[in-house]
## 1
Amino acid sequence: MYLWNNLGYELNDLPAEPTDPFKLNANYVCGDNYLFFFIKDGKLLYSTTSNEIVEIEGLSNIVEISYKNLVLLALDESGKVFQFQCTSETLVFNKENMKLVKFPLKIIHVKRGMEANFAIAEGGDLYQWVSNSQPVRVDIVPRVVSIEIGEKIIALTVTGNVYSWYLNSEYPDVLPISRIVAISAGSRHYLALSDSGHVYSWSTDDDDSLLGFKLQPNEEFSIPRKIPTLTNIKSITSGDDYSLALTGDGYVYYWGKGYYYYNDEEGDGDEEDNESENEQENMPTLYAPLKNKIVSKIFFLRYSYWCYCNR
């Protein structure tokens, strides 16, 4: 398992070689730039930036986790959902700050947003809750199989359609794409993967640096469009301002905002050169250090990402 940390500030200066700080063959990983959570053989573990790995005791057979803003959701194979809440001072997750969230149906997926939690039940029913409230069914989208949360919420249905809405909105939009098999959300940009291996991208922001292509005059940023340079894609994932795509051959492409975007004082002081570098970086680019490795999974953790390599 390989880690590139603090990617959110160093995309123009990616390391020559990835690091593997935990030496942990985990099954699933999530987190942010301060906390990392792992599932290994059904056990739930976490680590802070000190690299010390701690097991959250009392849980077993965990199959999915989702974390954001000091709240962790954990789903076990029986469909039970556990919610952990900690403070920024302690950053400790244990049975003392855990509660069981009750649902009328078996849950198969969980997702944590900045302001609300979501769960998908067998049959595609979608539930939403905040803090210590009881989950409420969201009946504006039918038969949901996947949900991602950025500035807007996007949901993939069993028919391959994608819906989009703001939190607590009663009227979702049906996006003009179909035959979708996977979705992903950053903070303001969104991705959808079709069954033919193509990637669609759109945004809630008129800044096209997150899209993976250059918008033409009069083109609407909120309408999904195919990224022309990406084909044979099998997996997608997004951080706040970045995206990754994994090809069927095991190669990783990245794109998004980079170092010069956030630091105008850096570089050679040539505004035109910096703009040129930004435009090039905003296009999907093969990550060279992984060229001789076969990547099987990719995960984004807000400002960093993880890759599993088969060799």
## 2
Amino acid sequence: MFNEMFNSVRFTYDSSKNEFISLVDYANSRTYDHGIVRGFFVTNGKYGERAVMVVDGFNINLPAHLLNKVKQIRANADAVKAINNNLCGYHIRTYEDGNNIIRYSVDLYDIKPE
């Protein structure tokens, strides 16, 4: 019970020197839309809790609709271990919301071990 509630497995990638960037700015500054996830964390600031995805060199602020998914991943020891073993990828996608505004999101996928 407590293993599930108080996960002691942590991400191993050091993101302390990463640059913070919005998902939109990150997507618009790259020629590729996918990569390897190095970790996730949650910040608490002026606008409440925000999910952050860690990739090589960047801490990417994610949309609010991904907050619960990030919390679930962080609470799952197997998911954290898989990320630490470079087995989680991300793909940035766009979608059109109900007001015809283009929005950005991230889909995660399994990377097969070599």
## 3
Amino acid sequence: MVGTEHDIFATFGAYGIECAHSHHLLAAMVSARSVSSGAPPSMRLMVHAAYLRVYTRQRADDDLPAYAAPDKAGVVTEGDFGLWEESIREDALQLEFDGKTFVCPRRPRLRMLEGLLAFHHSFPGMTGSMLVPEDVVRRAAAELEAIYENQPNARSHILTSAWHVPLRWFAAFRPDQREIVTTEAGTSIRYRTRRSDASDRLERTVEILQTAGFDESIIAPVDGLVSWLSEFANDSVVELDYGTVAQLFDDGDLVLDETAADVTSSLEALEAGDLDGASDHYALAAGRWAQAQATVYSN
């Protein structure tokens, strides 16, 4: 579930990379070796990210303050594990869904530590150590272990993907759950559904891929999403947010973006044994994201 993963339907010709958990991880992993060199704290991090979030019912004893957007979005500051773009304040995003209030704790420190270690472990041998030095890994692992010991129920409510939305994320949603929204940055897209429905759809996706004979390396990332969601209550809300990745597309492209429908149609064709149909629908989805996803490799 954490680290570098193949996208679903990868045998049809495309691969995806998901840096799970943390947008600011991308800054941290680059600067883990260079933070001592005095990188200017006012620099801006040129990384776009999409998010998969889980919101749980707000309880009377919830003590996290509501998230407040920073005055200057995208300004990077220096931390002990590198450069941070996201606010390090412990707070929670909130939303109203079906007349009830739900919260999504951001847990930036937890997500950064998990993401940093996952990134290191996804590159075996000397490569991982070159990208994230061993002393940084030891300090991050010790702090993460302390968090787990002191907060046994601590978990990440947010997965983050740089530059694109992994196609497997769309499998959690019905096509008609797509919403075109207007944000401060412009037009964007989001999907929302109940956790129980998202899990059912992802479990069905795993079954379809298994029946079709896909390799475990293709199935495991989807199954990892199932495992991650299983940690949350059935009535939780799952949200796919294009985030700043939406800025990579024109408004017209976003209005015409039907990736969830293409993924659903590909899975349905695959389930029916129509490999050509499955490949055609997948090609539509993959083609839509090809340019944005190529940025992953150029970075």
## 4
Amino acid sequence: MLIVIVATLTQSAGAKEIDQPKPIRAGACAVDITPEKLPVVISGGFLEGRAGKVRDRLYARCLVLEAGSERVAIVVVDTLMMPRSLLDAVKASAAKTTGIKPDRMIFFNGNKLNQLLIGKTKLSVNRFYHVVLVRTGRDVAVYLNGASAPDISGQAAPGCPGGAGGLFIGGRNDNFANFEGRMDEVSVYNRSLKPAEIAEHYRAAMPGRLGASADNGKKQSTAS
């Protein structure tokens, strides 16, 4: 059992519980984005570097998962330092073309198990959300802003191998598909919080009550 509480400044992302009998279909593609005009600036170093020839082709790689009427797209680009304005424009263009919504939460247990749950609430950028994930065996519940009913609810097999020694929040250990936004007041518990406790945590974090705590001393670790 794992419970993670995190207030997040979202950038995007799921709306209905996916019924288990629905099969998940997957599609993938890669688009060559290698610069045609050289030289180009190479990002990622302390000093500016330039490339005058192409050694390896650069690609934008996309994985699309579909379950019933719900679809999610994950895109990885072989470059760094893309401005936020460009990323937002690309997401808006992709949403208009494909109908894939970029504004809801999702729960995905990895590309080996390929089980997907999608949230109900449309999220906005540039604002914080209070998110609580409760995981008990195969049961998954994600609560948003202290609501008594979960925004995501369903079942998904655990994707983490037994005996794993690390927990990464906001990204993977290989820096793939990291969270785009900000996180604050991250907490991990070794017990299941009840909806009433989750609501009290949310109320304690509201403006005017900063520093108030609903913790009963059983919190395992905190980072902010």
